[in-house]
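Appendix B, example 12.
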Amino acid sequence: MVASGALLQQTVDARPNFAALLYGGPFGVMPPIPSRLPPIFMAWAQDDNVALPLIVRFHTALTAAGHKPEVHIYSAGGHGFGMKRQGTTSDRWIDSLYYWLESQGVTRAAAK
């Protein structure tokens, strides 16, 4: 929720250079989606029983506004999988984020 709020700031200079949204998005009424946003990474698990509808709604709003976020949808992991090892493919989301950051020109050392 916090990352999506920072991403959707009305003032372009107030937005981050990129956003990594894990199992989250804006709560409540969907805010307007600006036409220009920084690169976005999204990851969630299909068995998230807390925020799945919000995540899907935000992703749909982003793509409807013409954005193409990097999206990783895991079959299992639940809500808040984070760095917790569960023996699911969501255990490796951080590697996907690092690869994506590198493709955006951010080095692994700078991302830590």
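The helical segments are 2-7, 52-64, 93-103, 108-111. The longest strand covers residues 40-45.
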